[in-house]
Amino acid sequence: MTRRPGFLSLALAAVLTMSACSGDKGAKPAPSTATTPARSTVPFSLAVTPAANASGLPLSTEIGTAVTGGRVTGVEVLSAGKRVEGALRADGTAWVPAKPLTPSTSYTATVTATGDDGRTESRATRFTTMSRPGNRVGTGMYLFSGGTYGVAMPVVVEFVDFQVPEAERAAVARRLFVTSDPPQLGGWHWFGGNQVLFRPKEHWKPGTRLTVRAALDGHPLGNGRYGDQERAASVTIDASARSLEVDNATKQMVARKDGQVVRTMKVSLGKTSTPSSSGNLVVMDKLDKTIFDSSTYGVPATSPDGYRSEIHYAQRLTWSGEFIHAAPWSVGDQGVRNVSHGCVNVSWEDAEWVFGFTAIGDPVTIRGTERTVTAGNGWTAWDLPWEEFTQA
């Protein structure tokens, strides 16, 4: 099946409150022992990048701000006298333009900072962008504005027919921005060089609103290649938390909504020679009707293990071709034995029901089969422990 072609860590603010205790009424106040806090001993300094008069810079150029003994209080970027919109990163290390810079264009940036001692200083720099790069890599993002997704939906950014070199991945990820409302801790993980996924530490809270920006237009990806365009999406996580749990031991699939069981269905999984993959998976796509053709995976349809069949109510779980789908031909085996080529077979009635029940992004857990899902074979973000997912 053809795949359709967004690093910003989410800041969590903690508010600490302290209550004062009162003594007996009429008691004299104790002598004050408070002292005036000492001013920072770190010398105040401000430096900016790019270097003055730099030329040929990427369209994704940011204004770097290095401050000691103070903080940035303003950034102004102008081109031909017109103000360029943008915003400072949460950590204050750089100002990011709101959209790609214009090719072959001069910009002037002025950064103002205020020191802990109250002094204010400004630094200015002027630079020119490169001409529009020609060696562009197709990029994709599996989110579409206005869409509603399940609580396990990762933010998926893909690079078409290109492997981002390992040395470039951190810089590329810094151009991917995710904001959630309400805020939730999250992080990115690369599955090889052509796909990077963002997920929260726990499943998204139902009703969460996500705003995602993949700011890769003209951004260097390595090996002389650049991102093709800017992509953005504003989406919603469904108000209900749905999930599917498949157990090979019982040959059953249990559907839950907000933690409560709403339906139990018999299943037949992959036979021993073609087992289903156990793991924490995600519904990636939903197809009312499609054709399954083993020849697309190198197995001729006319061979003993081959097939070419019309399939209904198919829900993709892996890139290698494992689906939940209607299989009226295996109803007698469902709940008893495994006979599929790796898919989760259910009856026509159950397939139709579960197809209407789920959304893309819903979690699907499969347990007890002869094979564990391979990292990256599908949206396997939830199959890694949080500590492993977020490690460099």
Q: Overview of this structure, please?
A:
This protein has three helices and 30 strands. With 392 residues, the protein is mostly beta strands. It folds into three domains: 45-129, Sandwich (Immunoglobulin-like), CATH 2.60.40.3780; 136-237, Immunoglobulin-like (Sandwich); 242-387, L,D-transpeptidase catalytic domain-like (Beta Barrel). The strands form seven sheets. The protein has a six-stranded mixed beta sheet, with helices on one face. One of its GO terms (molecular function) is peptidoglycan L,D-transpeptidase activity. One of its GO terms (biological process) is peptidoglycan-protein cross-linking. Residues 242-367 form the L,D-TPase catalytic domain.
Instruction: Enumerate the spans where pLDDT stays under 50 for 5 or more consecutive residues.
Output: 1-37
Structural class: mainly beta
Instruction: Please tally the helical runs, counting DSSP H or I stretches of 4 or more residues.
Output: 3
CATH fold description of the largest domain: L,D-transpeptidase catalytic domain-like
* Alpha carbon gap, first and last residue: 31 Å
Please, how many domains? 3
CATH class of the largest domain: Mainly Beta
- Approximate helicity band: under 10%
CATH second-level architecture of the largest domain: Beta Barrel
Largest sheet: 6 strands, mixed
Radius of gyration: 27 Å
Q: Give the beta-strand count.
A: 30
Tell me, briefly, the overall form: elongated
CATH superfamily of the largest domain: L,D-transpeptidase catalytic domain-like
- Classify the beta-strand content into a percent band: 35-45%
Pfam families: Big_10, YkuD
Domain L,D-TPase catalytic: 242-367
Pathway: Cell wall biogenesis; peptidoglycan biosynthesis; Glycan biosynthesis
Active site: 325, 343
